[in-house]
Amino acid sequence: MIVPTLMAAEAGGAPRKYRISARHFGGDCAKAKLAGMDGVEIGVGGPADKLEIASPEVRKKYKDSAQTSGLAVSSLSMDLLNGNPLFSDPRAPAWAEQCIDAAKDLGAVAILVPFFGKADLLKNKEFKKAEVDALVAVLKDLGPKAKAAGVALGVEATLTARQYLELLDRVGSDGVGAYYDIGNTTNAGLDVPADIKALKGRICCVHFKDGNTYLGEGKVKMQPVADALHAINYPGWIVLETANPSKDAVADCKRNGDYARKLMNAA
């Protein structure tokens, strides 16, 4: 898979400068800028015939905010799909198409397509056959549309690399990739660095989080994660979905962002 690329290696072989985004602040670029972010991940709204993000007026507000702050919209998040699964809700493919159009308009390179709760793809850690068969059919249709828009639909689920590759190979589209969450996979007991390496070229976005702690202070072994991302020459955004221990959202986001930037950009 050819995932949307944000940055290239510096001339002379210098390390990449990874860009850090956040789900915090409801897409408020001013607060994200105070927290030292390079971008924001924006929610697309709740179930409706026309999603909130499909409104040109709503997108203009985000674009104006991004331009004023100097930040980018890294990605969109279709959280509504957890309760209205892409593989079963008849409205969901049209929602995804609206989000593809919105992502192109906003300059976002990825759309988070989640599979948790009602949308879980697994039972006893194995694929639910009927649900996955239906999902593959939907993604086969949506993938080329995403690719044409320069966007990747990022499947976020607690899958092993083997399961991710099976799903993505069945879909067979450069417009569909893995949205990899290091917190969820660590909590599931998966070998996160090994799975990241196995998914080389198939990861379109990465969530950094570690339960209710600051990055570097919880269960996730952050240095092996960073080493694995460097090993695959990961080209995309690091998106924070981190906790707020102090209840000061800006300060906590900045602390986690500073940690992530130092970790990922260290020579």
Could you characterize the architecture of this molecule?
By secondary structure, this protein is α/β, with parallel strands linked by helices. The chain has a single domain, classed as TIM Barrel. Helices cover 40% and strands 16% of the residues. It contains nine helices and ten strands. The strands form two sheets. Strands 1-2-3-4-7-8-9-10 form an eight-stranded parallel beta barrel, surrounded by five helices. Strands 5-6 form a two-stranded antiparallel sheet. The longest helix is centred in the middle third of the chain and has 20 residues, at 129-148. The chain is globular.
Helix content: 25-40%
**CATH homology-level superfamily:** Divalent-metal-dependent TIM barrel enzymes
The average pLDDT value, as a whole number, equals 93
Beta-sheet strand percentage?
15-25%
What is the second-level CATH architecture?
Alpha-Beta Barrel
> Looking at CATH, which topology would you report?
TIM Barrel
Protein traits:
single chain, 267 residues, alpha/beta, TIM Barrel, 8-stranded parallel beta barrel, 10 strands, globular
Layout of secondary structure:
Elements lengths: L19 E3 L6 H6 L4 E5 L12 H14 L2 E6 L14 H15 L3 E5 L7 E2 L2 E2 L1 H20 L3 E5 L4 H11 L4 E6 H6 L4 H7 L4 E6 L13 H10 L6 E3 L8 H17 L2
Parallel strand pairs: 1-2, 1-10, 2-3, 3-4, 4-7, 7-8, 8-9, 9-10
Antiparallel strand pairs: 5-6
Helix pairs in contact: 3-4, 4-5, 7-8
